[in-house]
Amino acid sequence: FGNSGIFSVICNTSFDPPKPFIDANGKKVEILTITDTEVRVRNSFSTTYCSNDSGIPVATSDYQYGAPYVGLDLSNTPFSVSYTKNSLYGIGCDVSQVLLWSTEDHDEFIIPEFQINSPYLKKECETSCDNVKEHTRKMSCNSTGYICCETTIPKGLKIFIGEVEATTLDELGGTDFAPVFPNTCTVALLAEVGQYSFDPLDLKVGGFNNTYRNIVIPVVLDWAVGSNTTCVEAKQNHKTYACQENSDCSDTIKTPGDQPIVVNNLGYRCSCKKGFEGNPYLEPGCK
Q1: 131-165 as b/e, with b when 16 or more CB fall inside 10 Å?
Q2: What 3 state SS string does the chain have?
Q3: How many domains are there within the chain?
Q4: Is the pLDDT of residue 179 over 70?
Q5: What confidence category does residue 49 fall into, taking pLDDT thresholds of 50, 70 and 90?
Q6: What PANTHER family does this protein map onto (predicted)?
Q7: Per-residue pLDDT tens for 207-217?
């Protein structure tokens, strides 16, 4: 915090009007709104994987053949993906939309495309259907997994990789990543809860990208200072303690009794005392 630059907002003046971005380890993510506890950002965390009339995988603008991944690395930043306000969505027929996420005590995986080398866990959201052509109406995703599925994400998500896999190999010899039905696409999408509904056009080659090129689906990020640090611990180092005069410190870790429950594993936050206002993080503090 302070002069570390990890909270820096990048103003891109090539847009009219200019747009704010955060830097997620080299990936520029557009900011939509900011509050004292969270940041809503523009979704750039979806991946589509499509096949042609013969069932052969075809390239689209957002993936290269053999690497149908989408990723975000929030390590060494004050941000994590909100587990209460986002979901993993999957769209397609007989496919598994996979979310890989970072933890501290599991085997490592390496995705060279994203330079990520981290412990991980895995969660799946599987879809199924009998005939792609039968799906001609819009609908919400749910836990049944018919054509579209929605599932929760883990707490404290800092690094994630989304990918799509076929749950059964197609009869035409497609790879593990090929959609089972010819001339269709499958989509893995991380998004704010309630902000995505299935549209049959999303199954068509290029359909999802064309629909959401100008329509924003947000993702909510939590933020705090002092990664994995409580207020008591932070106050012991006056040089790095972020809360200024006339402000209160609150943990993002709730501690009922002697059993701490990690809410988002981020750190702590500062707020002005009652009757004061201003920025609690900047000198001279709240007035």
Answers
A1: ebeebeeeeebeeebebbbbbebebbbbbbbbbbb
A2: CCCCCCCCCEEECCCCCCEEEEEECCEEEEEEEECCCEEEEECCCEEEEEECCCCCEECECCEECCECEEEEECCCCCEEECCCCEEEEEECCCEEEEEEEECCCCCEEEEHHHCEEEEEEEEEEEEECCCHHHCCCCECCECCCECEEEECCCCCECEEEEEEEECCCCCCCCCCCCCCCCCCEEEEEEEECCCCCECHHHHCCCHHHHHCCCCCCEEEEEECECCCCCHHHHCCCCCCCCCCCCEEEEECEECCCCCCEECCCCCEEEEECCCCCCCCCCCCCCC
A3: 2
A4: no
A5: confident
A6: OSJNBA0016N04.9 PROTEIN
A7: 776 777 777 88
Q: Which of 197, 222, 247 is the last residue of a domain?
A: 222
Q: How far is the C-alpha of 258 from the C-alpha of 264, rounded, in Å?
A: 18
The verdict on 37 and 86 lying in the same domain is yes
CB 59 within 8 A of CB 193: no
pLDDT of residue 147: 79
Strand-pairing partners, residue 142, are 149
Instruction: Say if residue 30 is in the same domain as residue 163.
Output: yes
Domain that holds residue 252: 228-272
Indicate if the pLDDT at residue 64 is higher than 70.
Answer: no
pLDDT band at 106 (very low <50, low <70, confident <90, very high): very low
Kindly state whether residues 73 and 198 are assigned to the same domain: yes
pTM reported for the whole predicted model: 0.76
Q: What are phi and psi of 29, to 5 degrees?
A: -120, 125
Same domain membership, residue 47 and residue 162: yes
